[in-house]
Design goal:
319 residues, six-stranded parallel β-sheet, Rossmann fold
């Protein structure tokens, strides 16, 4: 009689053990791994993208239970091939979402499609991927960012108020194959044409200080009556300020920029730079990450008719 009783005790113990273990197993099955979001930016030599990265990291720390963040950038604004390689690495590492500020609006589309084909959710920030190329690949990617043309128009209109009709101006453009460079140039031109200024030259400064300086110096030399230099970002504006000083034209040639990076703020204060536009770098990546997390949860992402989530842009002048 002892053996059956002992057997019953063993069976009861095993059942109790199993019933205790089951809820834990079920709970584990219901707890998915945190999604991994990759932030791929342009040049980290540009203060704008360092600020963007800092904002994204701060946001991740505040929401560490919700997602993990991997951030990458390239060495300079035109290092497109390396940015493509970074995206390919993110595909291999099986990130769940990709938030990208493309160095080239067209060249990054094929690798973005590759990421999407691998099941990765993609959000485009800062510089918009070319809509026609996206369409040719039969893909749609939401863009999160400001209206660059509007921002540049705000800066250009403010500059025009300090000039006279017929004055000669030059535009220092970013990388010419990028949508945001094209849109900022268009906004500058809108303002200059409305005020009857004469745009005598548009040349690319590749978004960089040194190239911006070289382009500005060449324009100042070729057009001695130049009254203003409109730079597509603040890095090129920094280069233009140095060129104006070297040419002995401080106070005679106005400089404007775009981005409101920290390095430009003392120059706004003392007048070396007349105006810039703030597109809130620290928040721009966060807007993109928030959109990506919604997509991962199959939640709706509110976009306009052009698949754009508009973010703010503001005119910044002397404090």
């Amino acid at each position: 009689m002892k053996h059956p009783f002992a057997g019953r005790l063993l069976a009861v113990a095993m059942l109790a053990s199993l019933s205790a273990a089951l809820p834990l197993s079920a709970a584990a099955a219901q707890t998915p791994e945190k999604p991994k979001v990759a932030l791929v930016m342009k040049s980290l030599a540009n203060e704008f993208f360092l600020t963007m990265e800092d904002g994204a990291k701060a946001y991740q720390q505040e929401h560490s239970a919700d997602f993990d963040l991997v951030s990458n950038g390239i060495k300079d604004e035109s290092d497109t091939s390396n940015q493509i390689r970074i995206v390919e690495q993110m595909i291999v590492s099986k990130v769940d979402a990709l938030v990208i500020a493309p160095a080239d609006s067209k060249a990054l589309v094929p690798v973005v499609k590759k990421a999407m084909d691998a099941g990765i959710k993609v959000v485009n920030i800062d510089n918009q991927l070319d809509p026609d190329v996206l369409k040719s690949k039969n893909i749609s990617v939401p863009f999160v960012g400001p209206d660059n043309r509007k921002g540049a128009r705000l800066v250009g209109d403010y500059l025009a108020g300090k000039l006279s009709a017929g004055d000669e101006v030059g535009i220092i453009e970013g990388v010419s194959t990028t949508t945001n460079a094209q849109q900022r140039t268009a906004g500058f031109k809108d303002a200059m044409e409305a005020a009857q200024m004469k745009v005598v030259s548009v040349q690319s400064g590749n978004w960089e200080i040194d190239k911006g300086n070289a382009v500005a110096a060449a324009m100042l030399n070729e057009y001695p009556d130049l009254k203003a230099l409109l730079a597509g970002n603040d890095s090129m504006a920094l280069g233009a300020v140095s060129a104006v000083r070297a040419a002995g034209k401080v106070g005679k040639v106005q400089v404007v920029g775009y981005d409101n990076i920290n390095a430009i703020k003392p120059m706004l204060k003392d007048g070396r730079v007349l105006a810039t536009a703030d597109q809130f770098a620290a928040r721009q990546a966060v807007f993109g990450i928030e959109a990506a997390l919604k997509m991962l949860k199959n939640q709706p992402v509110e976009v306009d008719a052009n698949n754009v989530i508009q973010t703010p842009v503001e005119l910044i002048t002397k404090p």
